[in-house]
Automatic annotation (TrEMBL):
CDD domains xrefs: GT4_PimA-like
GO molecular function ontology, one term from the record: glycosyltransferase activity
Region (Disordered): 585-635
A Pfam family matched in the record: Glycos_transf_1
Record-given protein name: D-inositol 3-phosphate glycosyltransferase
Length: 635
């Protein structure tokens, strides 16, 4: 590991595997995230470059190649001297790049990316494992924080123009595998994946390595002091097949960021009780999932007060759980409790089931002194219920995507992405609007839900007709492909707290068609198209007109992309860290408000200009509600 604060990452792999192009893409991604990046060549030294082909001797090229790379040659004196010269030049180049990256950092994190390194040298020279050369390169590898190994098949290497040298592509791949098992911190990557997918996977490895190193350094610096303990509770775990909602992603991002500064425990739902350590975070499972999703939520809320008495904590962050949202945790904990309103659904469930869950929800909200909400509309509502609470608005974030501008608003289908819940997500309204509007693009429904909700959706689709397809749950890579290939997203929800899916679509440059709910006002003038709430005819017109106007979609997509760039996970999760530090320092209550954020998690509206819509216009005979532009401006 490096000790000078500079992260050293090596991209390794056989020639023609794409290491140089990955270094360029990875460097650009890291710079866009505020890193100071230095690069260095590590595949070839002076002799490799000078004698890349056979010397001018009277022998066939194949014979020279075998003599150059063969087992006997690999352990000759000249070969050992070449390996030592290569090591010296690699060390010099890496050191120079490290000094340059550190000089340019100015307080930012610094990274050095090398195209090739110790693993490539070991695979090329193939020294005896107990030799001086092997020991030297192994020590160099221990100084690397991360080695990314591109795994490419022998047939692909041959198709990319592999030189007719010995060893063959297959033999060299085997060498890489053998030496990779001997070296630390080697992460394999699928070298045959699309370049953008490969670069994102490499970026995740680098960011995880930097985060782990920061955690280790902080823990070493705080050795001897009792670590402050933060607990985050959430029913919607990422591994729960019944939900997999956006709330689970938000909690995961929040937890990983908090774990960099505190000792973190996540209390969540499971089929049986137990404890598990994952990525340095302790997970405590409450045994409730055996009862099903609905009853499981109620049992989870009933067990949370018991968990608050048993799990040590200095601050407890509770992600509200339906149907009652709150669990009255402040009554059972002496430490500060922060309620996070990602799904306060008492009133929505009242309209759906006609059971007054909201009465218990309102009573519970009055127990909390610190509450986080996702939008200003919910903040106003919570302040009316509990005027003494310190209510903070912390919006969600999104991973910034690399998308060509020509893809903004361009695609082959309309996309609904979210949990399958007919009433809350408004899927019945969407299917009726699609049937009435008859847009020129097919409709894809992507998501999963409980068995009961999925049965209802199948029944509706059997009667629907038209070009509507339900694809089920989509994992990250498939989700990326679906978002990239969509023309625009539709969000027909009856109830939302933020709309994380909309923000994800906006990051790809895709417009979002939605009902003008108060909770979705943050999208205003951000490439969205708003229609009056629950007006099926207006939604049908929006589907038809957006599908028929690529130029309008392209302009809205550009605005959506610009708006999404204001929401980053680093900023949003950093606000939770600031709030936790304030509570630990002062025991914040109603008379001691937490840190304030001037923008409240909302982007500042931009003035109308070229390519931006002017005043809203309504459709034929229908006034426009508060929200984004209802119809295309008549330029």
């Amino acid at each position: 590991m490096t000790t000078d604060g500079v992260l050293l990452v090596t991209v390794s792999g056989p020639a023609r595997s794409g290491t140089s192009s990955l270094v360029r893409r990875l460097a650009a991604l890291l710079r866009s995230r505020g890193f100071s990046v230095g690069t260095a060549r590590g595949h070839v030294c002076f002799l490799c470059h000078r004698f890349s082909g056979p010397p001018r001797v009277r022998e066939r090229e194949e014979e020279w190649a075998h003599r150059r790379y063969g087992p006997a040659r690999s352990r000759s004196r000249r070969r050992r001297a070449h390996a030592l010269l290569h090591a010296a030049e690699l060390s010099a180049r890496t050191g120079a790049a490290r000094l340059l990256a550190r000089a340019r950092a100015h307080g930012r994190p610094a990274v050095v990316l090398t195209d090739g390194g110790p693993l490539d040298a070991l695979a090329s020279f193939d020294p005896n494992p107990g030799s001086t050369v092997a020991a030297l390169y192994s020590s160099f590898s221990r100084n690397r924080d991360l080695t990314l190994l591109l795994e490419v098949s022998a047939s692909t290497l041959a198709a990319r123009g592999w030189a007719r040298d010995w060893p063959s592509p297959h033999d060299l791949r085997e060498r890489y595998k053998a030496w990779a098992h001997r070296l630390p911190d080697v992460a394999p990557l699928d070298g045959e994946a699309p370049p953008s997918v490969l670069a994102r996977a490499a970026l995740d490895f680098v960011l995880d390595t930097e985060r782990s190193r920061a955690i280790s350094a902080r823990r070493r610096a705080e050795a001897g002091a009792r670590p402050r303990q933060i607990v985050v509770s959430t029913f919607d775990d990422a591994g729960n097949p019944d939900y997999r909602g956006g709330g689970a992603l938000v909690v995961d991002k929040m937890a990983r960021r908090l774990a960099e500064d505190f000792q973190l425990t996540v209390v969540t739902a499971g089929r049986r009780s137990g404890t598990r350590i994952r990525d340095g975070i302790r997970y405590v499972y409450l045994p409730v999932c055996w009862a099903g999703p609905r009853v499981g939520q109620i049992l989870f809320q009933a067990l949370l007060p018991l968990a608050a008495r048993r799990v040590p904590h200095d601050v407890w962050i509770e992600s509200f759980t339906p149907p009652f949202s709150t669990s009255f945790l402040p009554l059972f904990s002496r430490a500060p409790v922060v309620g996070v309103d990602q799904g306060r659904s008492g009133e929505a469930l009242w309209h759906k089931y006609h059971i007054p869950f909201f009465l218990i929800e309102r009573l519970g909200l009055r127990c909390y002194r610190n509450i986080v909400v996702m939008n200003e509309a919910d903040a106003e509502s919570v302040r009316r219920i509990n005027p003494k609470a310190d209510v903070q608005v912390i919006a969600n974030g999104v991973e910034q995507q690399e998308v060509d501008e020509s893809r903004f608003g361009e695609g082959e289908y309309i996309l609904f992405l979210g949990r399958i819940d007919l009433w809350q997500k408004g899927l019945d309204l969407l299917l009726s609007a699609y049937r009435k509007g008859r847009p020129s693009l097919p409709l894809l429904l992507v998501g999963s839900g409980t068995e009961a909700e999925e049965r209802k959706l199948r029944a509706l689709l059997d009667r629907q007709g038209g070009d509507v397809r339900w694809l089920g749950h989509a994992e990250d890579e498939r989700k990326h492909e679906l978002l990239l290939g969509s023309a625009f997203l539709v969000m027909p929800s009856r109830h939302e707290t933020f709309g994380l899916v909309a923000l994800e679509g906006m990051s790809y440059g895709k417009p979002v068609l939605h009902f003008n709910l108060p909770a979705l006002r943050w999208m205003r003038d951000g490439g969205d198209v708003g229609v009056p709430p629950f007006d099926v005819d207006a939604l049908a017109d929006g589907l038809r007109m957006l599908a028929a106007d690529p130029q309008w979609r392209r302009r809205l997509g550009r605005e959506a992309r610009q708006a999404a760039q204001r929401y980053t996970w680093e900023e949003m999760t950093g606000r939770y860290v600031s709030l936790a530090r304030h509570l630990l320092a002062s025991g914040s209550g109603p008379d001691e408000p937490g840190p304030r954020y001037p923008d409240s998690g909302r982007p500042d509206p931009e003035p109308p200009g070229p390519g931006r819509p002017g005043p809203e216009r309504s459709g034929p005979g229908r006034p426009s509600s508060e929200g984004g532009p209802s119809w295309p401006p008549t330029d």
